[in-house]
Write a structure and sequence with these properties.
With 395 residues, this protein is of the alpha+beta class. The chain folds into three domains: 125 residues, Translation, Eukaryotic Peptide Chain Release Factor Subunit 1, Chain A; 151 residues, Nucleotidyltransferase, domain 5 (2-Layer Sandwich); 94 residues, Ribosomal protein L30/S12 (60s Ribosomal Protein L30, Chain: A, 2-Layer Sandwich). Helices cover 34% and strands 23% of the residues. The protein is built from eleven helices and 19 strands. It has a five-stranded mixed beta sheet with strand order 1-4-3-2-5, covered by helices on one side. A hairpin with a 4-residue loop joins strand 7 and strand 8. Helix 10 packs parallel to helix 11. The radius of gyration is 24 Å and the shape is globular.
């Protein structure tokens, strides 16, 4: 057994989703592990114990499915190394997910409060990741000042600061020094907080030369984010900064999903959780509006043959890339099998060997074909069911 793809990361992109979707294991040896993570307080000690217990649960399920114990341990080896890895636990978010197969291992630290869950099957279980790819899921906050740049990956449930080392310049000072630019009289230096000297402009009174230097700084940030982070992104981006800097950044920005609204004021001394909460207050109306439009569109088309609540029809069309919009309830599972050749769904209330959660299957393939997915509460579902879809090809 050769593990040729091992990655621990904070970033979950559509490209990564495609990699996960492309994995299919013989003999149902794909393992998906989800767990919540405590980041502060005494409860942080429970993280290691919780992960060990979940890995042990996965080992037992593999053994029950017919895999010999030495083979199960070998398959789970990358995960077994994590509980005692101190460095791994230093950089956590609200939730942790592991994907393990013969040829791939992924761990993601994400701002999602997962429930403890272990799934063994022929493919990875991806539905708990839906808030990252749904129409009302994640967003980014770019906290900007002359002396600090932070990028926060957010959901309604949590926030994770992204490591930007080597992606964008740390500060305006760095850009000026690299360009050999001398300080102008309109700069002054400050050592407050960090102990290092920082360049600061005098607010709204900056001149054309200073604006040019800030614009160059922001262009470097925009270029770095585009090349490393946002090339395939569609999630909304909110700026957190003072008014005169946000207007300059908009001139540098090339990301098409930057919102007009922004978080006003210097973000330097604002913690990530407070920024996330301010960002959510801005983004929630956008998400709610998009969701209500999608539900209204479903209701308008209901009964025309362009919608469905039938599991067989939806799963088959998701596999074929024919779903425009999918609505699902996250906290329910429908286990069974799908035969793409015969386009046949078999439901079974029990979790059998190599069965899949058919809701998960429909979600994954809708996203893979660039469809929209909304995770709704049961009472929000347009037809009161657990799954509903709008098909493509509507005039």
């Amino acid at each position: 057994m050769v593990m040729n793809s091992i990655k621990e990361t904070d970033i979950l992109t559509r490209k990564e989703l495609e990699v996960l979707l492309g994995q299919k294991s013989e003999n149902c040896l794909s393992v998906s592990i989800f767990m919540p993570v405590q980041k502060i307080g005494r409860e942080t000690r429970q993280n290691v114990t919780r992960l060990k217990n979940l890995i042990h649960d996965a080992e037992k399920r593999l053994f029950d499915s017919g895999l010999r114990r030495p083979e199960a341990i070998k398959l789970l080896a990358p995960a077994l190394a994590l509980p005692d890895n101190e460095l791994f636990w230093r950089h956590q978010s609200d939730g942790l997910v592991l994907f393990i197969s013969k040829d791939l291992f992924r761990s993601y630290r994400l701002p999602l409060d997962f429930k403890e869950h272990v799934v063994i099957g022929d493919r990875f279980h991806l539905k708990p990741l839906l808030p990252f790819f749904s129409g009302d899921g994640r967003f980014y906050i770019l906290a900007l000042s002359q002396n600090e740049v932070r990028l926060l990956q957010c959901t309604h449930y949590g926030v994770k600061e992204i490591d930007l080392t080597g992606i964008v310049p740390d500060s305006l000072e760095e850009v000026l020094m690299r360009n050999g630019t001398k300080r102008l009289e309109s700069y002054h230096s400050s050592t407050a907080g960090s102990g290092k000297e920082n360049v600061i402009f005098h607010g709204q009174d900056i001149g054309d030369t200073e604006k040019t230097n800030i614009l160059r700084f922001f262009q470097r940030i925009d270029r770095g984010l585009h090349n490393e982070m946002f090339k395939e992104e569609k999630a909304p981006l909110i700026i957190a900064t003072v008014d005169y800097l946000q207007s300059i950044y908009r001139k540098a920005n090339t990301y098409k999903n930057l919102l007009d609204d922004f978080i006003a004021g210097s973000p330097d001394r604002v913690n990530t959780k407070d920024l996330q909460e301010k960002g959510w207050r801005i983004i929630k109306p956008y998400f709610d509006n998009a969701k209500m439009k999608a539900i209204s569109e479903y209701k308008r088309l209901a009964g025309t043959g362009h919608t469905s609540t039938d599991m067989q029809e939806i799963v088959s069309n998701a596999y074929s890339g024919k779903i425009d919009t999918l609505f699902v309830v996250l906290d329910k599972e429908f286990w069974g099998t799908f035969d793409p050749t015969a386009s046949k769904v078999v439901l079974d209330k029990n979790v059998g060997s190599c069965y899949v959660d058919l809701l998960d299957y429909a979600v994954a393939h809708t996203l893979l074909h660039d469809g929209r997915v909304y995770a709704l509460k049961s009472e929000e579902m347009p037809d009161g069911t657990s799954i509903a879809a709008i098909f493509r090809g509507i005039a």
